[in-house]
Amino acid sequence: MQKTPVIKKVVFIISTIVFLFFGCKYEPVSQYTYRQPEQLQDGIAVGSLAAVNLDSSLIELGVRNIQDGRFGEVHSMLIYRDGKLVLDAYFQGHKYQWGAPDHYGAWVPWNATMPHTVHSVSKSITSLCIGIALDTGFIKSVDQSIFDYLPDHQQFNTEGKQAITIEHLLTMTSGLQWAEWNAPLSSVENDQVGIYFADTDPVNFILDRPLVFTPGTHFNYSGGNIQLLRAILENATRMPFDSFSQKYLFEPLHADSSYWSLRFRTGEIMAASGLNQTPREMVKIGTVMLNKGIWNGVRIISENWVEKSGQSFAGISGIKVPGEDFGRVGYSYTWWTKEFSNSGRKIKMYWANGWGGQKIMVFPELNMVIVFTGANYMSKVKELKILEKYVLPALR
Description:
It contains eleven helices and 15 strands. By secondary structure, it is of the alpha+beta class. Strand 12 (336-342) and strand 13 form a beta hairpin. The radius of gyration is 23 Å and the shape is globular.
């Protein structure tokens, strides 16, 4: 039977939709073409992908698929290898806004000069500040009781809490009750949110939690631990936390756009999540770790601290991070750890991780740092897929 014009039209429309759907599934629509990053006056040397033996065709394909939204909302991807920034790709997306639907604020074209809210990457920056405080003699040892540096909170120095050390805070093993992964970050049932609305100062709020595990025996992800580190650093150095981080970390790195934007109602900086940085400044942090504590010939932090940050802490492994596609991972001094297999070769990585897709990834064996920013707050972060499909296979 001959098809009527109406049926032919319907068949044509359906065929076109099917073609577009399956075609878009495998081929990106965007026409991104790689170009070398711009040389800015920020101390970061730039180069080409080819110069560091990375296949530009694979990286281009990855960037196009990011542009097309295949990995949710990614705002930037940067690659630094062999002493050079060889990729800095920026995309459009939402600024972070806590109370908005999906935490989406204004829609903007992200670029190299715009600071990004890095969320829990802040924890790893706070950890670096603690390491610097040890290097400079303000703090004697990570094995000290936290109450050596909390003179105004000695009422909590009891019922086993006196055994909590600085290292326990760094490794999320303080044993203090804290609910951060089992409630949405839009709810006061989440302690990381509830602490903001509490009618007491943050240190009181945290130390008043019951001790539910012997310190050092159980991993429990806790922004409260990091907030205690902020108080310890301020008491040890007699400097405001932002002033210390500015003097000893951001100024030596010429990270002029880095700033702490979030404070509690009582005035204290939210050290677990309140930092803003440009992606290139995040690269600088990764470079310090990659170069064993040195940035452009200047020692920022001890090599020993970098080594501890890059190795899984004893007894902490098999952790599944909510909202991430990294599978089971380990943990160190606020840095996550994982081992990859690429073409039969084992590759170690450690990284600072922030909610929504903020990452500073360090690959010591590859002499490489990769940075991501994004806004996948209510959907799964898929940056491991970007690594496995495009970046690691691009290695020659």
